[in-house]
Specification:
Elements (H helix, E strand, L loop, with lengths): L3 H15 L6 H17 L4 H15 L2 H4 L4 H16 L15 E6 L6 H16 L3 E6 L4 H14 L3 E2 L7 H15 L3 E6 L7 H14 L3 E7 L4 H14 L3 E5 L8 H10 L3 E5 L7 E3 L2 H8 L5 H11 L2 H12 L5 H14 L2 H5 L17 H12 L3 H5 L6 H11 L3 H22 L1 H16 L1
Parallel strand pairs: 1-4, 1-5, 2-3, 2-4, 5-6, 6-7
Antiparallel strand pairs: 7-8
């Protein structure tokens, strides 16, 4: 996951401050140096790092911090506030047109993930805003791009407008708007062509489409894994097209995250969405305050709640809450939760959203269908008593369960270890502090 190394480095920088009753200017200076190095290693733009550290330092040596009873916590709060501002402050949403349809034009280099994101956005708008989207294939240079859009459109049952590769892209865009008006599509997403590099021909075509259809939004799709190159691309596209926002793809990958922290400061344009996986449902609105919280290891309860609301029905959630509260979470519940959590996304990502949980606790516990089948086979090979009370499972019982499920004893041991880790995590949910935090976050979300 992006920011993992940055989170660890920042945590180390704060560790020295947390235990101190009094913080000196020298302590702050040393911490700021470590924060600066951590940000530079994360591939954050040098000028952005310099400005960020200057702002944090200025606030950190103020009387509110120096005279505070918990100066370490105050400094962490300042870093959190400044990180949030750096990434845009507030969540920037899609602007809907006054008339119909709302037109969104996608731009970006080849391979950034424009076509897949276009489909994700269409599905998201239908589900979240009750829109009737239309996908438009304007990449006339690659027949495979048109085919790809048709394939993802079919998977989501969303119509795709295309006229092949013979017509000009600007003609296709104009005809698509007419088609949308005639067929009641109120949200049009235009998937444009990309190149492996920026050239004048590409930019001119995009400018022509912009002039022809007057889109409410021009979203630039950039690959988070390209680091500072992504920010340079954003600057170039913005200077020609005046983009309205950025979409960051592959933010779940092995990336240092510097582009996400630099792009708003460099271009002045907000990140509106983040791609968090390969599935067509793996899309999140970008919330700067939540991302800052994740980077600082404070979790992201609001996003976790949103994911849970999508995956769990209210009755199941109420039953689970009761079991957690009474500390009655058993292996049957464990299996059910594994099945539900698979809908929410990779477990390694979810655990990072839980405040105070060791992010490495469930390392390697991501579930694919084969692992789920193995878990199911092992649990169903147990007696009802064993599923209710796993502590009674001794060596001979493990052998019997392994043989009955067609697995090695080591697989049974791994499952029981994972169950124990999840039980500990569930205790945190049931505990007073965690329960209060969840309730507070839910109230905050409802107010919004």
């Amino acid at each position: 996951m992006a920011f993992e190394n940055l989170s660890e480095k920042l945590s180390q920088a704060f560790k020295k401050l947390r235990g101190k009753g009094v913080v000196t200017e020298k302590d702050i200076k040393e911490s700021m140096r470590e924060i600066k190095l951590a940000l530079l290693e994360a591939d954050v733009n040098f000028k952005v790092v310099k400005d960020f550290v200057a702002k944090v330092s200025e606030r950190a040596v103020g009387a509110d911090v120096m005279e505070s009873l918990t100066p370490g916590q105050q400094i962490i709060k300042i870093v959190n506030d400044e990180l949030t501002k750096l990434m845009g402050g507030e969540n920037a949403r899609i602007e809907f047109g006054k008339g119909s349809p709302t037109v969104v034009m996608m731009a970006g280099l080849q391979g950034a993930g424009k076509t897949t994101f276009s489909a994700k956005l269409a599905g998201y708008m239908r589900k979240k805003h009750n829109k009737r989207p239309l996908l438009v294939a304007c990449d006339i240079y690659r027949p495979a791009a048109i085919k790809q859009l048709e394939v993802v459109g079919k998977q989501l049952d969303i119509p795709v407008f295309q006229m092949g590769t013979e017509e000009k892209a600007v003609t296709i865009a104009k005809k698509a708007i007419e088609h949308a008006k005639a067929h009641g599509n109120d949200f049009v997403i235009i998937d444009t062509a990309g190149r492996l590099h920026i050239d004048d021909e590409l930019m001119q075509e995009l400018e022509d489409i912009k002039e022809a259809v007057s889109p409410e939004e021009i979203l630039l799709v950039i690959d988070a894994m390209t680091g500072q190159d992504a920010v340079n691309v954003a600057e170039s596209f913005n200077s020609r097209l005046e983009i309205s926002g950025v979409v960051m793809t592959k933010l779940d990958g092995d990336t240092r995250g510097g582009a996400a922290l630099s792009v708003k400061a460099v271009t002045g344009k907000p990140i509106k969405f983040a791609g968090t996986g390969e599935k067509l449902s793996d899309l999140e609105e970008f919330h700067p305050e939540r991302m800052a919280s994740r980077i600082l290891g404070s979790g992201d309860v609001l996003t976790l709640i949103e994911k849970a609301e999508q995956a769990f029905d209210e009755k199941s959630a109420a039953e689970l809450e009761e079991k957690i509260r009474k500390n009655q979470f058993n292996l049957d519940d464990f299996l059910a939760q594994m099945q539900q959590m698979k809908k929410m996304g990779p477990l390694s990502q979810l655990v990072k959203m839980i405040p105070g949980v060791n992010t490495k606790a469930l390392e390697g516990a991501d579930l694919d269908d084969r692992k789920l089948l193995r878990v199911e086979a092992i649990i169903t090979s147990m007696t009802e008593q064993e599923r209710e009370n796993p502590s009674i499972i001794n060596a001979s019982r493990k052998k019997r369960i392994a043989a009955g499920s067609g697995n090695e004893v080591s697989a049974v041991n791994n499952l029981l270890k994972q169950f124990e880790q999840m039980q500990q995590m569930m205790k945190q949910f049931g505990g007073g502090a965690m329960a209060r935090r969840m309730k507070k976050a839910t109230k905050k979300k409802k107010k919004k």
